[in-house]
């Protein structure tokens, strides 16, 4: 992914209201007031929290461990993110399992060595996969669906110490400084873990949230907006010159969408462009400057090409459904694209620190700008939005 795509969330002044959803999972409390769940529970890893902070974690004595293997089922469409972490010696020796480009990646620190290895099958296909991590002396083995996915061998010249003390395990984050890892990655993972068997331990795990959000029974690729918030980007990160075109392409079942899909505007100004779905009238309305046009919502692909004085709109592949909007000359056009905001799933407000109260309900199966996939993990977004999966 290009560098400018990594910078989308930087420097945005808009403040979003991040009210958590009322979803929950059964859990017990402990003496520190933390909720607890069994390690076999189904856990949605994409729940909002501090970026690298684990969602659930556990600390046990190494003397209580009778197994060398941890296994669990895992499902995602997300190509990148943190899954499973473990350490001893208060983080001196550690292990991180993540995804990078949909492929498993293990990073291990032990004594005077740090190694990173990536390989095995792509597993971000939305299916449940059984993963198992085990330690066999000098080797750490990752199995994927019963077959060896990764085997890492490590041998130090130092005399190996007898393991003692505590062991920490965590899901959805890490407990060390991210700078210690060889390979950096985006930690947020829109995925689910279930049926975990962690070293045969029966101890409950501590939950770093008021409630655990559920996983959808069936999922499909896309970004899901439940009608409670939006995702925000700076337009300055998109490649655009005054004499060039800028293309935004959206895929999805527009008959199942309701509310604002897209809005673009300069700070302190009314939105220059809006795209709104109305399930009552079965229409999608595009507004650019002072021009407005409504089309039936029976399409699955919408391509919008922005130029200095007009917007071309293409529905599906049918050339007969092409529409051109030629607005009155808009003095804020170039300013908007250079220093404005793009909101997906909501309407930008009149000021930098306000947003409209209406939000999109529906699934955008794919969002592309200038032919590049738009990753909502890089946006400032409401925690209820799922970046890579929608309920099917």
Report on this model:
Its main location: secreted. GO terms for molecular function: steroid binding. There is one protein chain. With 392 residues, the protein is mostly beta strands. It has 2 domains: 24-213, Jelly Rolls; 223-391, Jelly Rolls, CATH 2.60.120. Helix content is 3%, strand content 44%. It has 2 helices and 34 strands. The protein has helices at residues 3-6, 333-339, and strands at 28-29, 35-37, 43-44, 56-61, 69-76, 81-88, 93-100, 103-110, 113-118, 129-136, 139-144, 147-153, 166-171, 191-198, 205-207, 219-221, 223-226, 231-234, 246-251, 259-265, 273-278, 283-288, 291-296, 301-306, 311-315, 323-325, 341-344, 346-348, 355-359, 361-364, 366-369, 372-373, 380-381, 389-391. The protein has a 9-stranded antiparallel beta sheet, with no helix packed on it. The radius of gyration is 24 Å and the shape is elongated. The model is unreliable at 1-27 and 350-356 (pLDDT under 50).
| Number of strand elements | 34
Mean pLDDT: 83
CATH class of the largest domain: Mainly Beta
- Largest sheet strand order: 1-2-15-4-13-6-7-8-9
Q: What profile does the largest beta sheet have?
A: 9 strands, antiparallel
Number of domains: 2
CATH architecture of the largest domain: Sandwich
Assembly classification: single chain
Helical stretch tally: 2
Radius of gyration: 24 Å
Structural class call reads mainly beta
Choose one word for the global shape. elongated
Distance between the first and last residues' Cα:
28 Å
């Amino acid at each position: 992914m290009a560098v400018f795509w990594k910078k989308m969330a930087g420097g945005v002044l808009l403040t979003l209201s991040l009210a958590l959803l009322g979803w929950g999972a059964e859990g017990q409390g402990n003496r520190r007031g933390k909720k607890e769940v069994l390690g076999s529970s189904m856990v949605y890893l994409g729940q909002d929290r501090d970026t690298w902070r684990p969602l659930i974690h556990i600390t046990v004595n190494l003397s209580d461990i009778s197994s060398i293997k941890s296994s669990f089922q895992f499902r995602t469409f997300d190509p990148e993110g943190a899954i499973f972490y473990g350490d001893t010696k208060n983080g001196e020796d550690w292990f991180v399992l993540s995804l990078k480009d949909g492929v498993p990646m293990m990073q291990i620190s032990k004594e005077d060595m740090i190694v990173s290895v990536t390989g095995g099958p792509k597993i971000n296909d939305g299916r449940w996969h059984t993963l198992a991590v085990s330690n066999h002396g000098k080797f750490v083995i990752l199995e994927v669906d019963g077959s060896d996915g990764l085997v890492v061998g490590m041998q130090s010249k130092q005399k190996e110490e007898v393991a003692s003390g505590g062991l920490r395990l965590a899901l959805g984050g890490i407990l060390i400084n991210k700078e210690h890892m060889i390979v950096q990655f985006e930690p947020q993972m829109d995925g689910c873990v279930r049926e975990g068997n962690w070293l045969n331990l029966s101890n409950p795990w501590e939950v770093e949230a008021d409630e655990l959000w559920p996983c959808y029974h069936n999922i499909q690729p896309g970004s899901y907006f439940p009608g409670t918030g939006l995702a925000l980007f700076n337009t300055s990160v998109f490649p655009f010159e005054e004499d060039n075109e800028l293309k935004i392409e959206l895929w999805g079942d527009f008959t199942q969408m309701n509310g604002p899909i897209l809005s673009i505007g300069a700070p302190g100004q009314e939105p220059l462009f809006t795209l709104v779905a109305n399930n009552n009238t079965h229409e999608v309305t595009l507004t650019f400057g002072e021009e407005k046009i409504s089309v039936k919502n029976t399409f699955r692909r919408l391509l919008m090409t922005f130029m200095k004085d007009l917007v071309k709109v293409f529905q599906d592949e049918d050339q007969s459904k092409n529409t051109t909007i030629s607005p009155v000359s808009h003095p804020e056009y170039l300013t908007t694209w250079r220093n404005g905001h793009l909101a997906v799933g909501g309407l930008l407000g009149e000021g930098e620190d306000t947003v409209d109260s209406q939000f999109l309900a529906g699934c955008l199966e794919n969002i592309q700008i200038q032919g590049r996939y738009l990753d909502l993990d890089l946006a400032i977004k409401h925690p209820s939005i799922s970046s890579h999966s929608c309920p099917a």
